Amino acid sequence: MRVLAILGRSTWALLVLALTGAVVLAGIRFPTPATPAVPPEAVAVPAPGTVLVCPGPIRLPTELEPGADVSYDPQFDTSQTASVSQLAVITARPGAGGAAEGVIRGLAGGPDLARVIEGAGGTRLSDPAAALVIRADAVDEVPAWVAGTLNVRTDDGDLRGLVAAACQLPAAQTWLVGGGTELGTSARLVLQNPGVTPATVTVRMWGASGPVEVAGTPEYLVPPGSERVVLLEGIAAEQRHVVVQTSAVGGLVTAYLQDSRMRGLVPAGVDDVVGGQPPALQQVVPGVVVVESVAADAEPGVLRVLAPGADGGAVEVTLLGAAGPVSLPGANADLEPGAVLDIPLSGLPAGSYTAVVTAGVPVVAGALLMRGATGEAAEQPSELAWAPSVALGRAGPLALPDGATGQLLLAVVPHEGSRGPSTVTIEAQGSGGTTVVERRVPEGTTVALPLAGLADGISGLVVRTEDARIAWAVVLESDDMVSVLAPVPPRTPQPQVAVQVR
Amino acid sequence: MMEPMSQARVDAPVPTLRLPVVPVTVVVVTRGLSDYLPRTLEALAGQTRPPEQVLLVDAAADATDGPGTPLTELTSRLWPDADVDVSVLAAPGARTMGGAARAALGAVAPHARTQDQGWLWLLHDDSAPEPTALAELLRAVELAPSVALAGCKQRTWSDPVRVLEAGVSTSRFGRRMTGLDEPEVDQGQHDAREDVLAVGTAGALVRRDVWDELGGPDPSLGPYGDGLDLGRRARLAGHRVVVVPSAVVRHAQASLNRGRADWDARRSTQARREAYLHTQLVSAPVVAVPLVVLLAVASSVVRALGRVATKEPHLVLAELMAPWRVLARPGRITRARARDAATRVVPRRTLRPLQATWRDVVGQLQDRRMVAVERRRSRTAPSELELAELATLRRRRRAALTTVLIAAAVVDLVVLGTWISQVVGGARLAGGSLLFGDAGRRGLVAEATSWWVSGGFGDVAPPDPFLAALAPLTTVVGTAGRAAAVVLLGSLLLAAVGAWFAAGAATRSLLLRAWAVLVWTAAPALLVSVEQVRLGAVLAHAVVPWFALGLARGVGAAQTDLVESGLVGAARLNPRDGAAARAEATERTADEEPAPRAGVRAATAEPSLAAAAGAALAFALLTAAAPVLLPAGLLVLLAVGLVVRRRGRLLWLPLPALALHGPVLVEAATHWRDGGWRLLLAEPGMPLAVEPAAPWQQLLGWPVQPRSWTALPWPEAVGAALPLVATGVILLLALPALLHRPPRGRAARIAWLTVAVGTAAALASTRVVSGVAETPEGARLAVSSAAPGISLALAGALAAALIALSGLRPALARHSFGWRQVLSGLLVLLAVLGPGVTLGVWVARHDIALTATDIPVVPAIGRQMQESGGLRVLALEPAGDGVVATVLRADGRQLTDSSRVLQVRSTLGGPADPAQSEVAGLAARLAVGASSDVSADLDALGIGAVLVPPGEDAERAVLAGRLDATPGLERVTATASGIIWRSAGLAAGTAGWARVLDATGDTTGEVLDVLPAGAQPGLDIELAAGDGPRLLVLAERSDAGWHARLDGQRLRAVETTWRQAFELPAEGGHLVVEHAPAMRTPWLILQAVLLLVTVLLAVPVRRRRGGQR
């Protein structure tokens, strides 16, 4: 009896244990199912239209502006007669598709002033009285490849100099590396709102000794379709080196800085500072052309660098010349956080360069080119040009003014991961049609192509590249005047947006 | 058998034949020859004042007239001479005492001397009068001619002699009041009574003419309420009713009490209740009758629920049936009322002085309660010695419990303290699988009973039982989020409390219970679930012990401390008492003085209905928190049902859970082939993409692969294996329990079966895709957590281990020191070290995916839109090369919006959802920068604002810039919650939860009006009239459950792409829109009834024992 009971209990024990084992075995037999990712919904979106806002005409900093409170004394106006300005606009084929067409209107809208069509030397508008906007719809779901350039040449007066600036895409943030507010230097910040919503723009400034406390509240309401001018010397005077950041809330705006200088009564140059790249560990500034100066006290220019963040760090500058990288004496410096540093380019042999700024912390950079005698005692007028930093590897069009002289600079910035020379296709739109040039650029060098050699009566350029190491710009030079034209790459097409709805 | 003391009435003058003798006819009603009848007739024959006529009425169904029956033999033996006129009459049709008496009186010629001025003496077959009873009665009525009805003092039939009744009264509401609750020792305390409302029929002396006038008691009454009726009507007819305490009958109350073989508690309760209600309906003024009817029906429900609470489920039906049985025969009531009216000569209010007051009623209730308390006390601890023993035991147990709980609370505070302080400071918890729980008491109940899951654009799905599970705690702490916080942040303490009490059902050893607490609190199933913030799994882990405890107590398998009388020292070593008792006994005899004293031993407790109901509630809670445990738990219950004796209550046990899950189960069944069965395995809350552990690791207690222990420089393989060894040791300890003898061996087998079932549940959960998890890299399919199944398996293993370990000490004591002791010592060391180190490592390295924030997700302006208008806020967040669009209806995504049904549906694929596509299209347009006005599109989706949550990345700034430039959006503010844009539709008055459109167009017609929804999707407003036919378009998915009524008139639903729309006439009126599918109400009623009954059953109310009431 006892034996039977023990036997019974053992049987039960084995049964439940076997059941447990069987469960585990079944678990091994049926593995965990695959759990693939659930792709988000890909929503096709229409390619956005392109809006380019062109700078307005250059003005004396004391000139009365709509909405400005600066007193205007026409007695001192000595310049306008000698000023010749032109808006050049071209459109190009992004690839296989057709070229977009566009219209040019005033900033506030209004009637179409001109149409932008492909070829025929582009579209030209002489002496625009105010800022203009180029609007072009996408073609074949590819955003339009249009470009505009405002070119102003003033041979006489306080604003003597060459100003050439590309029309910009509105953005929420713009970094303007250039300008100053010391005595004789004026920095006229122009904020343009091409949208339909009012934008509030916050201006932040950095000077040589750190972030600049500006007078008053640095917030400016820019109504839709209008522009607002801020004289920086009015809100932060006596800043020799300036970097400006504008942040727009409520709408996208464009911002540029008209930097005009006087040395006593002698004009010392004028140029528009346009937006460069936001802070990054590497900045590339193409279009640094250094010429052999005849004057003894001539300075070829400076490279302006700022670490806007809370940390400073070492910065290294390499200049890519025609034969390869050239090191700039004294170019490796330490950046104080928030302090604008100007690195002089003196000592650099004449030539065309692309500046590559590498730092341990995010920095912004820009370059100032100077022509003529720049010393305090010099009596001849001098000239200046600001070159912004550009994004690498961006193909796109660039409009050139009538009779442009100068050179196209192409550089291959050394980059880990891809080595060797790069081939760039250049389409030059001229009076005789489009000329296509393929050019091989060795790594670490800057190749300068004279504009005159690309096409007759050149009206615009299209640079096509797939290489993410290419940086390019055009330096316009005529007589002793100079200006740098950095391309504004077209909006990248994004045919689909991955939307995950929760 | 003690003869009642011959009263101090010996000197009372016995009535003589001085006066003209009043003829007395005795009517004795019996059903055949009952056990009591001979004694009764003997007592009648022995009366000092013999009656003139005796009518013995046989009301048995097979009664026959004529000589030769046992009854005639009996009477002829007792009254051999013809001095008394004795007749035996058959009244086979008589149902009641009154009926039988009426039949007899009608059938027999009145005695020569009893014309119409005589007296009737009513006796039951079980009411034996004292010899002087009739004499005393007659003396009383002779002294007071106005008395028409005189009753006796009733005493118990057998020893000990107690007073049962001395006149009857009622409260104002007809509650029967005898003035004594329990039978009392007769010390003459009621002998002062005289005028009463009524007397019992046993031994009642009625004037013959009054009897004839009243027609005897109401034929509908009896055996309950007939005396009361007779007395009441006699009073109303202008006569006096007295009790004569000196006249005594001994009454066995056989027809009321359980003395009779065919006594049935249910039938007796129902009959008593019916008699009461009948009397009430008859005696109430005619205007009050409808009210009495209503009260009768309503009170029957309350009384039925009360019967449930007092654990008398067999009487529930009787209580419910009684009013209907009375009301089903209105003829009886009208006849009785007519009789009442015919004989009534004084108004009803004259009865008032005779009725008991409120104070009497309350006093009686208090007395009854105190008597019950006293009786219980004397039952549990008959002696001081035992009381002291119990107190010692209780003190030690409480000390151990306090120590264990303090330790658990400290660990809980160390690990979760930061979140606790934040939550106390008002922060909200989210993270892991937990969403915000802003729903308050009302909101949660509304969501838990709604078929409309209101998140996003709403969707139809049966309510998730998990929400109902959170409801009780939410009612206490205010919001669902706080309830979740209590469960999550108190999880270790909750687990410890549950483990302590549940372990008490398996062992009475305090050390073993403390060890069980350690194992349960250190269970990886709990620790991993806390890390992953799986609220359901954590709650399940906290509830499993209570379910086990309730089950064990409910089937009578739980151990409890039993006091033994102090003189049974030898009996403690009785081998039949089982190992545990011996362990206790050995322990005691070893270290305590040998003085004779009471002993306490572990014994199996009585099966408890309340505990079974508690287990049913725990099962409902458990399965709501972890639905995979529903099938698993049913399997365990089935196994338990096969081995226990009282399996009837096990049938009730899963019912509340099944009712709660019912709608979801129906959903699963209807879509079974399309994957609806996955619902059985899906878990509440947000799914998480977690790689589950291997099957054998799950068996060892780990839902995910444990991180290796790297404290010491041992090889990697050792570090990886140690956590598994630490938890697997429980299984090793659980093995020996299988060799125990029944009943503990049977419990061990059930426990091991639970291990298998729990592991199967864990493995099944991790082998079926049941949801879509959101990861930083995007959405991916996910399986459920293994933790709830592992918790169940661990509960089984722990129970078996406790059974094995509680038998360890006595087993070892039988052998001298040797390998057994060494091996056991090692195992015990491992058993303590394993969970201890597991918990320690977790405390040191825990990584809990929980965030507490007091920053709202939606800024105040957005909240205002959501609350006042039912508008939504579209949150856009850049992710990779796209955006994540979240449609917010409240301050962040809500716990109440998560639905297992919707989760499972989303894993199954299917046609693209047009609502989802529409919002995706809008989000894409907004993300790339829309150049045209978007407010119309936002209006159509019921979106009032667009939100970009806070963040530092550059994509966010770009997105914000594009939204800034978007026509139709106006930036309102940038706060810590992000940047919010208001739709132009708000200012234009075109944005609303419900829009009234021009009917000429489609759903794109011109917006005429917008109507706001409240916290719950729906409308209840006054609508103004319009110019022509209109269209009402809701920003909700269409469903057949949506109903709209304008002034009670149903509106016709209109087909649209996905929005619910109704045709609206030009007229205005009261507009009600609600989502109410047809099956909602029946389910709610079923769930409410089952839960209410189970809760009442689980309430620890003691059943009233004894007594006749």
The helicity of chain A comes to under 10%
Helix content of chain B: 40-55%
Major sheet details of chain A = 8 strands, antiparallel
Tell me the number of strands of chain A.
36
Number of helices of chain A: 2
Task: Tell me the radius of gyration of chain B.
Answer: 39 Å
The gyration radius over C-alpha positions of chain A equals 29 Å
Report on the biggest sheet of chain B: 9 strands, mixed
The number of helical elements of chain B comes to 37
Structural class of chain B: alpha+beta
- What general form of chain A does the structure show? elongated
Shape of chain B: flat
**Low-confidence sequence ranges of chain B:** 1-18, 567-598, 1104-1109
| Fraction in beta strands of chain B | 15-25%
Can you give a write-up of this model?
The complex is a heterodimer of chains A (502) and B (1109). Chain A is mainly beta and 502 residues long. Chain A has two helices and 36 strands. Chain A has helices at residues 2-29, 232-235; strands at 37-38, 41-44, 50-53, 83-92, 102-106, 109-116, 123-126, 132-136, 145-154, 161-166, 173-177, 185-193, 199-207, 210-212, 219-222, 226-231, 243-249, 254-263, 266-273, 280-290, 301-306, 313-320, 325-327, 333-335, 341-344, 351-371, 383-388, 396-399, 406-412, 422-430, 433-441, 446-450, 460-464, 470-478, 481-485, 496-501. In chain A, the strands form eight sheets. In chain A, strands 20, 21, 22, 23, 24, 25, 26 and 27 form an eight-stranded antiparallel beta sheet that branches. In chain A, strands 11, 13, 14, 15 and 17 form a five-stranded antiparallel beta sheet that branches. A four-stranded antiparallel beta sheet of chain A has the order 3-8-5-6, with no helix packed on it. Chain A is elongated. Chain A starts with a helix and ends with a strand. In chain B, α26 (716-734) packs across α30. In chain B, strands 1, 2, 3, 4, 5, 6, 7, 10 and 11 form a nine-stranded mixed beta sheet that branches. Chain B has 1109 residues and is an alpha+beta fold. Helix content of chain B is 47%, strand content 16%. At the A-B interface, α1, β1, β2 and β36 of A face α25, α27, β17, β18 and β21 of B.
